[in-house]
Design goal:
Layout lengths: L25 H11 L4 H35 L5 H47 L2 H6 L2 H43 L1 H8 L1 H39 L1 H6 L3 H53 L5 H23 L1 H18 L21 E9 L5 E10 L4 E6 L5 H9 L6 E6 L2 E2 L5 H5 L2 E5 L9 H6 L7 H10 L3 H5 L18 H15 L3 E5 L7 H15 L3 E5 L11 E6 L2 E6 L1 H7 L2 H9 L5
Helix pairs in contact: 2-3, 2-5, 2-10, 3-5, 5-6, 5-7, 5-10, 5-11, 6-9, 7-9, 7-11, 9-10, 15-17, 17-18
Length: 601
């Protein structure tokens, strides 16, 4: 089959993939969240109607007060007092009902938006390439999916509805106040640019402070993730005190960041309150002067003061929730940073599905490096014959695992090509490639669940009979059936309740269930005892039948039956041949063999 190659440059790996995200403004955050809520327009419409009704009711109550002072008291209309009281109570009751309705609909819409955002964020993380995870800490990414999204939840549940309601009320009340007395209103509104400037000034500082808070939370999460999963190692080295000190350092940074943010807020709120009282003083003094000149009625002045409270409420409430808003903005920046990161490895628009493979793998003039480090492979050539077992041996750092990663396409080559049956890996879909490859490694990854669930991970549609058959072929059925709950036995986090050999046999059963045409064994028996290794070797014989296999091994006893062995040093092949041929050559392979099996004289 003719090899299918990509145009020059299309295979470049992007270790620095993604875009530099500019700090998101609060307005940008709100606009983006509103855009994400467009599909929930019915709930938004119901909430909006509730906001309009709330604004009208808040406008109505001061009017009732004004009418009482200017007409009922002056004209002594006793018969209307009960009507006024009933009107105020009715308006107050309706306010409560409408606020409940608006808050309920807004909460439902907000939770759906956050539900979608968190799921989209997780799906995007699944799309990102392995190099991205090489650069970023697991705890930090966990914090973005959990803590940062929760910060947005706090904003929606506590402040967003009130912000929208207050904004609508502000426009309506300001228009009415201008109509009643434009001079008094303009004097009052003159204080708002000052409040806006101070809010922007403090807002930047507070957001910067909360970015440090979010980062410190991520540091704490990362430390927790690492130490709790490695608790046995910590205890074995009696390092509990050391890790406690390191955790204290991280929580100390979190405390200091929170204190700084709290101090900024504590300084901001009194300044805003003072400016609000300046506005109240203007209304009281100038309004009283106009009333004494009989240019305003007493009722109008009282209503004006009531409207002043409604006009200033958005600013007052915004100052109260500024920390939530800025914390949400800082969290949104961190979420957006992930969402706008492009995967370094993606399927090209014309990528094809890999057909059923024979398993002929070829490296041709491959150069590869991890980022700015020196080249691991340089002008590298390698061929794995279909249906044969090929082994790679060599010193640590020779490039053996890198070769496996390039076959799986965890990374793309810098230059050259890797092909399977003539198909350049960059021209086929990642899903079809990886579904054709099974991996059994020394570091077995098992999930907290049952034995059956972990085996079924190789094929989500597998039946109970197929799971049992895979376990039988992997020499795992005996120990599984020895458990009281059999295949329904919970194995704990990372399979902690199983031995190393048992975990390895489960990984082989999982690989068997996926029925791959290509198998990669990466130090699969390196840390096992002799009995477990023998059982694994028997299971591997079943797994490898009729499949192309790449074996990476330090223990040379595991590869003596390989069809071809390649010896690597510094990313180059220095020897190749069968086990016995390489021993007779008395080269590097013979040196490695004698280190493991010294000849006694």
């Amino acid at each position: 089959m003719q090899e299918r190659r990509m145009p020059d440059g299309m295979g470049m790996r992007k270790f620095g993939s993604g875009v530099r995200v500019k700090p998101a403004s609060v307005w940008h955050m709100l606009v983006q969240m509103a855009a994400n809520a467009r599909s929930e327009w019915r709930g938004l419409l119901a909430a909006l109607i509730g906001m309009i009704v709330i604004s009208l009711l808040e406008f109505l109550i001061p009017q009732l007060t004004k009418y009482t002072i200017d007409h009922i008291i002056v004209e002594q209309l006793y018969g209307q007092l009960m009507l006024i009281g009933a009107g105020i109570l009715t308006a107050a009751a309706l306010l409560g009902v409408m606020r409940f309705i608006s808050a309920s609909f807004m909460a439902a819409v907000g939770q759906k938006v956050l539900f979608k955002l968190r799921n989209d964020l997780y799906r995007h993380l699944q799309r990102l390439d392995v190099a991205y995870y090489d650069r970023n800490r697991t705890g930090d990414l966990m914090s973005r999916v959990t803590n940062d999204v929760s910060m947005l939840q706090q904003l929606i549940s506590s402040g967003m509805l009130q912000l929208f309601t207050d904004s609508f009320t502000f426009v309506a009340i300001a228009a009415y106040m201008l109509w009643v007395d434009w001079r008094l209103t303009l004097l009052l509104l003159a204080t708002f640019p000052v409040m806006f400037f101070i809010t922007r000034l403090f807002g930047r500082s507070i957001r910067s402070a909360f970015r440090k808070v979010q980062q410190s939370v991520a540091d704490v999460s990362d430390h927790l993730q690492i130490t709790l999963t490695g608790i046995r190692m910590i205890k074995s080295f009696t390092a509990e005190g050391y890790e406690s000190e390191r955790f204290t350092e991280r929580t100390q940074r979190n405390r200091e960041a929170n204190v700084r943010a709290a101090r900024l807020r504590a300084a901001y709120e009194p300044i805003i309150d003072f400016i609000i009282y300046v506005g109240l003083a203007i209304v009281v003094v100038f309004g009283a002067w106009l009333t004494m000149r009989e240019e305003l009625t007493v009722g109008t002045l009282v209503a004006f003061i009531a409207y002043l409270r409604l006009l200033q409420n958005p600013v007052r409430r915004f100052s109260r929730i500024l920390n939530t808003v800025q914390q949400a903005a800082a969290a949104y920046e961190r979420i957006e940073e992930v969402m706008r990161t492009t995967p370094g490895i993606e399927d090209t628009p014309d990528a094809v599905e890999l057909p059923t493979v024979k398993g002929h793998i070829r490296f041709r003039d491959v150069t590869f490096s991890y980022g700015s480090d020196g080249a691991v492979l340089n002008g590298f050539d390698l061929e794995l014959a279909a249906g044969e077992v090929t082994a790679l041996v060599g010193s640590s750092g020779a490039g053996k695992t890198t070769i496996a990663h390039l076959i799986i396409r965890f990374y793309d080559v810098d230059s050259g090509s890797v092909t399977i049956d003539g198909y350049d890996l960059r021209n086929i879909t990642q899903q079809s490639l990886r579904s054709s490859i099974g991996i059994v490694s020394q570091d077995v990854i098992l999930f907290n669940g049952t034995i059956a669930e972990n085996i079924r991970y190789g094929n989500q549609n597998a039946s109970e009979e197929e799971i049992r058959a895979a376990a039988e072929a992997a020499n795992a059925a005996a120990f599984i059936e020895g458990f009281a709950n059999g295949y329904d036995t919970e194995i704990g986090e990372r399979g902690i309740k199983l031995s190393g050999g048992q975990k390895q046999r489960l990984s082989i059963a999982r690989a068997l269930l996926s029925d791959p045409r290509i198998i990669i064994l990466d130090e699969a028996t390196a840390s096992l005892d002799t009995e477990s290794e023998q059982l694994i070797q028997e299971a591997l014989q079943t797994l490898l039948q009729g499949r192309t296999c790449l074996v990476i091994a330090h223990r040379l006893s595991t590869i003596q039956r390989a069809d071809r062995i390649y010896v690597l040093e510094d990313g180059r092949i220095v020897e190749q041949g069968t086990h016995w041929a390489l021993l007779e050559r008395r080269g590097r392979y013979r040196e490695l063999y004698e280190l493991q099996f010294p000849v006694t004289t």
